[in-house]
Amino acid sequence: MPNMAVFDEARAQEIIAEHIGLEGPLLPILHAFNEEFGYVDDAAVPLIAQALNITRAEVHGVLTFYHDFRRVPAGRHMLKICRAEACQSRGSEDVARRCLSELGVDWHQTTRDGELTVEPVYCLGLCASGPAALLDDEPLGQLDPKKLAGAVEEVCGS
Amino acid sequence: MTRIFIPKDVAALAIGADKVAKKIAEIAAARRLDVTVVRTGSRGMFFLEPLVEVETAAGRIGYGPVAPADVPALFDADFLNGGAHSLRIGRPEDHPYLARQTRLTFARCGITDPLSLVDYAELGGWRGLKRAIEMGPPAIVNEVTQSGLRGRGGAGFPTGIKWKTVADTQADRKYVVCNADEGDSGTFADRMVMEGDPFMLIEGMTIAAIAVGATKGFVYCRSEYPHAIRTFNEALRLARCGGWLGPDVAGSKHSFDIELRVGAGAYVCGEETALLDSLEGKRGIVRAKPPLPAHKGLFQRPTVVNNVLSFAAVPFILAEGGKAYADFGMGRSRGTMPIQIAGNVRYGGLFETAFGLTLGEIVNDIGGGTLSGRPVRAVQCGGPLGAYFPPSLFDTPFDYEAFTARDGLIGHGGVVVFDDTVDMAQMARFAMEFCAIESCGKCTPCRIGAVRGKEVIERIMLGTNVDANITLLEDLCQTMKFGSLCALGGFVPYPVMSALRHYPEDFRPRAAAVAAE
Ligand SMILES: Cc1cc2nc3c(=O)[nH]c(=O)nc-3n(C[C@H](O)[C@H](O)[C@H](O)COP(=O)(O)O)c2cc1C
Ligand code: SF4
Ligand code: FES
Residue B358: what are its φ and ψ, rounded to 5°? Predict the structure, then answer.
């Protein structure tokens, strides 16, 4: 997930071309942009609209409907902390609060050094092993504030 | 050579299974021991993860939960020959947690290498598909109808009837869509299938395709499951190479292939029609029914939409016969249900059993009560739209109708336990907040009502005009229940009203405090 490329139109066209043959290609295309650049640049919207022969408004509507698609670049790393009920029952809200305050950010924000973006997530399927989180692609379970801080430090450096 | 089995299920990875595997390989190499590490799915006993199993003359012997620091001592205790150690649990299948289960769907999970076609075939895989190909579409539908299987995604609709509708509808193309959106907190059975026994899902979907005459399948998996996505994509590739998918499925005249698609973090896309719109590349907005997806589904074509667990039950039903499946269960709830015991519970995990256990047995006898050791205060069943049950209702049997009779739902089989520190007004507030975040926006009672509901509960929590606001909240719940198109807005009153009914003291903290003085 780290090392995001800067948006570039040639690469954007390649991504679109790679997926356009699929049935219902829009979500796969938006996912691919999210993966490659860390977000979906506004400049991608008309390119996609043209390639799929739909309006910009339609692309925009889909882009903004789904929580996953980012419209601004994310930090180099992504931390998704579970806020759903099973994790709450095991103290996840306290773990999350402390983590956010130590990082000095709120939900959906990125640390000032651009290292880490923190997003809420509603269940990771680790509900018997919570509090749970996903740090980039690494699953974390049975978290307490210290364990989470340690994992973040390992990935982001201190 | 000794084979060692270590899960790579994400729930085992989250608590260090990779580090344990690495340590075992290191020490074995240093001591020049001939071992092979096989990565499996999980047995579903998450309180024992990472659970390491060793193949010995006496069968597989388990050790868990193993931390990397325990590994040298395990070698010293001769665990490669099943030696004694405080973490030794004996043969996993003799462990009471597994011994009490009836594993029809999860028969292989945690035992085999999920991506080994050899393992799959050796432990009964593809038998259902082969029999299905022999017997032909109408007989397949019959077998599934006879099994009494009801959809495991939440609504509990009879699977055989759904398949028959699609089979009877004429069209140039038909689809089979697997709902792997598994959005309910407290559930992980779909994920375990995709990570731990993915060929079973492929087999179930293929049988469905043959039954209804579909040529293309989609699995719509939530993006929160990157590990399941990787494993399942690899399983699809292997199944194609093995001739189990493609132009001539298992050497038959049937053509069928499956594509995995990834959701984008919208809970409502678990609702089948929103899911179909999402697959088509649209916003995940719920469609009005009719038309049913079985008549006009994906790209307006007849479409079977089933949950992962519904498809996963099918290979057994075809291999052993619908009656063998229907022999388990109670009333109109036939077969087994993979119950997912989660939250603040001592023995959390996957417990597949025939319908009919009481909620109390599930939470106390099997789950062992709370992890914190404090009294159980509430249990939420059926995900974020399911009711909260107090211990006074623990005699409720796990059965679709029995839960409905108590204003609850089984849903996808999640059981989330809370201890006595839970604030039920806060949980009710959360239910409304979640609904507000996830509403697709199509109906006003859900889109606006959820936001208002959250605000009203916040006022109640502050002690502002409590009586009037509780009346307002009850009214609002009625409006949402009857004025919403789908179960997101329609069912969110269940957690809210059950919290209000069973835990009124949490909504009147000040009144309670005054009374206590
Ligand atoms: C808001 C909402 C979310 C849902 N989420 C899921 C889900 O994550 N997985 C699922 O299988 N069914 C979910 N359902 C139920 C589906 O609409 C549908 O009933 C199910 O996929 C049918 O498959 P089945 O008959 O095998 O259960 C959801 C329904 C609603 C209203
Ligand atoms: S109840 Fe809510 S989620 Fe369901 S269709 Fe209406 S607005 Fe959409
Ligand atoms: S509720 Fe947090 S992982 Fe499921």
Answer: -85, 160
Range of the domain at A56: 9-65
| pTM for the structure as a whole | 0.97
For residue B258, the surrounding DSSP H or E stretch is strand B257-262
Judgement on whether residues B191 and B316 belong to the same structural domain of the protein: yes
Summarize the confidence of residues B257-273 as an average pLDDT: 97
- Does residue A99 sit in the same domain as residue A149? yes
Q: pLDDT value at position A5?
A: 65
DSSP classification of residue B293: T
Which of A27, A45, A65 corresponds to the end of one domain? Answer: A65
ipTM computed for the complex: 0.96
Instruction: From chain A, pick out residues whose CB is under 8 angstroms from the CB of B438.
Output: 122
Q: What's the CATH number where B52 sits?
A: 3.40.30.10
Domain count, chain B: 4
- A100 interface with B at CB cutoff 8 Å: no
Residue A2 pLDDT grade (very low, low, confident, very high; cuts 50, 70, 90): very low
For residues B229 and B121, state if they share a domain: yes
Residues B355 and B496 in one domain: no
Q: Is residue A40 part of a domain?
A: yes
A 10 A CB-CB count for B99 gives 10
- How does pLDDT run across A9-54, given as a tens digit for each residue? 999 999 999 999 999 999 999 999 999 999 999 999 999 999 999 9
How many distinct structural domains can be found in chain A?
Answer: 2
Which segments of B413-455 are extended strands (E)? 414-419
Q: Which protein residues touch ligand 2 with a CB less than 6 Å away?
A: B 268, 286, 439-443, 446-447, 484-486, 488-490
Domain that holds residue B69: 2-99
Any chain B CB within 8 A of the CB of A20? no
Q: Is B407 helix (H, G, I), strand (E, B) or coil?
A: coil
3-state SS, residue B339: strand
**What confidence tens digit (pLDDT) does each residue in B171-201 have?**
999 999 999 999 999 999 999 999 999 999 9
